[in-house]
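Just curious. Invent one:
>
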Amino acid sequence: MANLEILVSELPTLIHSLKLNIGDSNKIMEQIILINNAQEKLRNINKIIAQELKFDHINSSAIATFSRIDTVASLFIPNVGLVDPAIADKFGNSETKILLTELQSKIGGWIEWGYFLQAIAADILSDIQLVNQLNSDINHLSLRAKFQVIAESLNINLALENFHVLESQIQKISNYQNELLQLEHKLDYIFKTIKNSRSLLNILLGVSAFYGKSGFALEWLDDDHELIISSNGKFQELTDILNDCDFFREQIAALIIQGDALREQAEEALKKIEQESRKEPVLSHDIEIVPKFSVKKIVRSTLFITSSLLILGFAGWKIKEQSLSLTQERSAIANFKSAQKLGMEAASLVQKPPHPLKVWQQAQNKWHQAIKLLDTISNETSVSDRAEEKLAYYRINYKSISQRILIEKQALANLESAQKLAIEANLFVQNPPHSLLIQRQAKDKWQQAINLLEAIPKSTSVYIQAKEMLPSYKTNYAAIR
């Protein structure tokens, strides 16, 4: 066992090396060699475990907590340091005693993961177009970093009294807004590529565009076969990246509105400066004594005023129409901004689920209010196209959250029903002895309660509570004879 313990002490290093860094394609071949070497060492450890088990004639049947552990072939898994919960399954529980047969199984899983990484690496290197795109992405800022740069740049203190500086600032704001629109298009590409692609290589293109210079590594497949990716020490599933895309969409929309407000303020300041510069000062010596007007001049002036009033009367409806149009435009912009704000608040509420039912309902209400506001925006206003886009997106979110609410409500109903059945089952078995019929009824109630708890989805807020209740329910069920 001494030699085996020495080899097992190398496991943390071997497991850490079982990942594929994607970014610079020139380094992928080096990684294939490293993965292959790690697999070879893992196979060697498995061979020694097999020899140890054969020598001792041990059948795995116990874990470290039993009193007979001294007679069972087991080892401590070495400490691998702090591990992100998203990837804990890859390493197992450190400093925990484990049966050799279980360790064999884990090592088999790590070796298979190595083969998977090698296959992906080979596919990448055989696709020239993919390699070129990966090499291009590594030269650009990550989507997160690019967003932060633009967001910081839009914190502009307007030079409200300097004409030339204001002109320059307006141009900068326009440039930043164009960059935001480009970033929005990139987000759409990333979201659609990751969500809709069936090919892993295509999905990796979307992930590559998301991380850019930061690069990323394929780390592990979790229990639900969800690919776990790391970048700059942060671990994410593909669904987390999609959630980030949704978040950045809302943030970009908010920054575009902020840019519009800044530009509007700067343009108003420019107009005031121009108006001030056109005014000529009136000097006292320029004032002349106004002569008395003749009757002809008075009549001519009267006729001019009258005709002007007639023209204004005929054109009044046009002015009124323009006034209404301006009011409609302002109302549309205000409603669009309010809807955007509600959308951002709703998106922020549902980050990092699961959430209690109340939180989902609050988010649903905000999406509903946002949709109602967008529905009021006329097609004749300047924000109608953007409102249509947001409306479609918000309706999808509203529908999705409504579905989550139904699931959460059902989970709560299951939990409450299970608790009620448990109380009834306990009442049945009070004051023993009991007839066979009573015992059967109690057992049936425990079984129904267990079934209800097991049906509660992992994505709900009461899943952990249900999971904690299950062992005692199953114990009570088994205790009934």
